[in-house]
Amino acid sequence: MNTSSKQDERIARMTFASVYPHYLAKIEKKGRTEAELHQVIEWLTGFDAPKLQQLIEDKVTFESFFREAIINKNVHLITGVICGYRVEEITNPLTQQVRYLDKLVDELAKGKKMEKILRSSL
């Protein structure tokens, strides 16, 4: 699915630090932990907790965040709808990666088992 170039540009310029507190609040409200959030982010990007903290402090954009990431080889197993878009059909690679992260956070907040979120039992 095509997203508008304006939306893609807006996502690229958005900082990870501006969105992270929203991810955290969303999952904590549903009884999940920051450690679980970090586990999900590390699975997707390869970033451990100290690296995540550095990226937050440096206020990196999503463009820089995902440029540094080592995307999990099983990312293609993330499917479904997030923010009105089917993630597997998003054509802009950066927007797709951000939506993958959104999808994983959403699954965590919905109480899915970690094995399912991390696609380890598939």
UniProtKB/TrEMBL annotation:
Record-linked InterPro entries: SP1917_dom_sf, UCP033199
Protein's name according to its UniProt entry: DUF2200 domain-containing protein
